[in-house]
Design brief:
Blueprint lengths: L3 E7 L7 E5 L2 E6 L10 E12 L1 E6 L19 H11 L7 H14 L2 E9 L7 H12 L5 E7 L10 H13 L3 E5 L8 H15 L2 E6 L3 H17 L6 E5 L8 H14 L1 E5 L10 H6 L4 E3 L16 H12 L4 H10 L2 H6 L15 E4 L4 H7 L5 E4 L2 E5 L2 E2 L2
Parallel strand pairs: 1-4, 5-6, 6-7, 7-8, 8-9, 9-10, 10-11, 11-12
Antiparallel strand pairs: 1-2, 2-3, 4-13, 13-14, 14-15, 15-16
Helix pairs in contact: 2-3, 4-5, 5-6, 6-7, 9-10, 9-12
């Protein structure tokens, strides 16, 4: 039995099967000339390439300004000014967090993203309000996308009082956040042991993963990275800890890069990157060759930290590929893995992909192959979540 039959399509391996969908999953992958199930809706994809849903592994839904008229960027070009601007600006916006987050989610879905990991600011000024807005948007769009939420101490942990801030992060997990976050244990908190011991204790007690923003440069960032890996191994949290950004890895010598990559691989610590133009890029291929899981995210999308972005993970892949100088088809295929299967693995999305039994989270676009999808990233033609058509021709369908 099937509810929908997708025909006239191409898969990444060049095959042209028919895809039968039932109960939100891929029920069968049929030969192109096989008869379709009886009494089934048929959808002709016009020869498009059909791919598994994209994964945005690093986003800040609570900060977006989508849904509002254009807002000039208000912060000075350094991190603390952006944090201070958030404290001042976000509570005064005429559109609440949930509505702005929903505007961005719908753009993500229209571009073929089916899974998102977002950070929500947990600070003394905001309490759990930003998290609650993101959770409301998550629930409202559950039919079209999965959203994983990190309780993110944007303004620091120890510099915000230590124990009270840790209690607030713990409360965020109780409220519905999926992971506990951290930020620059040395540069922001100047107390790496206090921050890391605290958030790893919450993760152990609550049984959740960890995602730590690490902007710190050079040897300072490398020290924090080593401390994160040591605690991951000691706590048996291999595969459940992510370092976001890891700019330090791009600012150290090759021998130190290789040692850090080996350490991360042994500890099972992943790296997520958005290819920031103003910072050193970690050696993504070196990390992958060493066995480190590398995945990608858009990070800030037209928000209080950046006026740029449109939520398209294929465009983000093109930016990262340009910075990493990935030009050949095999390397572009690896890059696609970093915005799809590697992100799904990091987020614990399983099963994943165009295989029988997997949720029918798919999108199509008018290109010949994956390299062209990244190189050209044209509008998505059809986007499906759990077998339901949720966007078409680059537009949200609800």
């Amino acid at each position: 039995m099937a509810e929908l039959l997708l025909t006239n399509l191409r898969l990444a391996d060049g095959s042209r099967p028919r895809i039968a969908i039932a109960a939100g999953r891929i029920a069968a992958i049929l030969p192109p000339d096989a008869p379709g199930p009886a009494d089934t809706q048929v959808m002709d994809l016009g020869g498009d390439l059909l791919l598994p849903a994209l994964v945005d592994g690093h986003m800040h839904l609570d900060k977006t300004l989508f849904g509002l008229p254009w807002q000039p960027h208000a912060a000075e070009p350094f991190r603390q000014s952006r944090i201070d601007t958030d404290q001042r600006l976000l509570p005064s916006l005429p559109l609440p967090t949930g509505e702005r987050a929903g505007e961005l989610i719908r753009r993500c879905v229209a571009h073929g993203t089916g899974h998102i990991r977002t950070h929500a600011d947990i600070t003394p000024a905001f309490g759990l309000a930003a998290l609650q807005g993101v959770l409301a948007a998550k629930q409202a769009h559950a039919h079209a996308v999965t959203v994983q939420v990190v309780a993110f101490p944007q303004a620091g942990v120890m510099r915000q009082g230590g124990a009270p801030m840790l209690e607030l992060l713990d409360a965020a997990i109780g409220e519905g956040a999926d992971l506990v976050g951290g930020i620059d244990p040395c540069e922001v908190d100047r107390n790496p042991s206090g921050q890391l011991d605290g958030i790893f204790a919450i993760a152990a007690r609550r049984g959740v993963g960890i995602d730590i923003h690490l902007h710190e440069p050079g040897q300072l960032g490398l020290f924090s990275l080593q401390e994160i890996c040591a605690r991951t191994k000691a706590g048996g949290m291999q595969g459940r800890v992510t370092i976001s950004h890891g700019f330090c890895l791009g600012g150290i010598g090759e021998s130190l890069q290789k040692a850090a990559a080996a350490l991360m691989a042994e500890a099972g610590v992943s790296l997520v990157t958005h290819g920031a133009g103003g910072a050193t890029l970690p050696p993504l291929m070196l990390l992958r060759r060493a066995g480190v899981r590398v995945f990608c995210g858009n990070d800030d999308v037209r928000d209080t930290w950046s006026p740029y972005g449109n939520a398209d993970m294929l465009e983000r892949a093109a930016i990262i590929g340009w910075r990493e100088d990935l030009r050949t088809d095999p390397l572009l295929q690896e890059l696609f893995d970093m915005v799809s299967s590697q992100g799904a693995a990091a987020l614990g999305i399983a099963p994943y992909g165009i295989v029988e039994g997997s949720p029918a989270n798919l999108f199509s676009l008018p290109v010949e192959n994956v390299p062209e999808a990244i190189g050209g990233h044209p509008p998505r033609r059809s986007v499906f979540h759990a077998g339901r058509l949720v966007a078409q021709d680059g537009a949200w369908m609800g």
